[in-house]
């Protein structure tokens, strides 16, 4: 068989059609009777699609409608399936007791499930007046050139003019004032020189560092640096962190849980007998929740690979009348019926009484108004 899922143009966003080609006669018969069920499994984490999203346990999903043309079956599905799929992930379609790859084409999710689209960014507006600063240096260039002749103006005034003559006469009229200023200036300069010399003498005598000391200081500073640099670099290992050492010492000692061990075994792709034997080892009446989940993962893998006894034990997980621990696996009448029938068809003698008891339980639940039980009784055969 081959399977692909694509958009359902007639129903629009959130709806799709799973097309199964080369379907065997028994699958075609179930589709025509309206009792065909399927399940989807992610290849990344091995979880199954259900009403609450991707879950640990397998869930059988009914199509909205099934159309048969020869050995080609079209299964109409809604947002439960379409909105949960991703084109970057691979999925397995379990139908008619077989698991086949489901090829995902372009799907249109329900409104609000696609992120609302990508908004376009608003371009920033750039002011058009920005070229103006470029023109300003061009306007200043002629101004700097026109200012060059101005310093030459004093050269043109070489010939003495009549206007300067009164100034020279006025300067010569006060020679005594100029002589006094020169005397005071000379005396002040002499005093400054004397004070400066005295200060320099005192500084060099009492405060200045002798040349022998200045010459020795770089030697004493260099010798310890060159000698101590490699010594200080060697004996500086990082200090041990007691918390890290304690964490590193305790991490490898943590015991592996049964569920982790089951997943590790499944990654090695065991055959059906190896998966069944290990799953039966965890399947006990006093098993913990984690051990019960580990047993389910292994038994289900063996059942999907055709192990008859594993089919019966997987059906008991979903059977509400079973007294064995179920872990986190929820009750599912349709799943219990499906696996009991698979075990009966594979020749397990205990599967027939288990089916009869399950039908009586389903009838009692339907009498109390359970809608799922009523729907299952309609297709019971």
Explain the overall architecture.
- The chain is built from 14 helices and nine strands.
- It is α+β, with helices and mostly antiparallel strands and 381 residues long.
- Among the domains are: 2-104, Immunoglobulin-like (Sandwich); 258-378, Serine Threonine Protein Phosphatase 5, Tetratricopeptide repeat.
- Strand 6 (65-69) and strand 7 form a beta hairpin.
- Helix 9 packs antiparallel against helix 10 (289-304) and helix 11 packs antiparallel against helix 12.
- The longest helix is centred in the middle third of the chain and has 32 residues, at 175-206.
Concise synopsis of the structure shown:
The chain has 381 residues and is of the alpha+beta class. The chain is built from 14 helices and 9 strands. Helix content is 49%, strand content 12%.
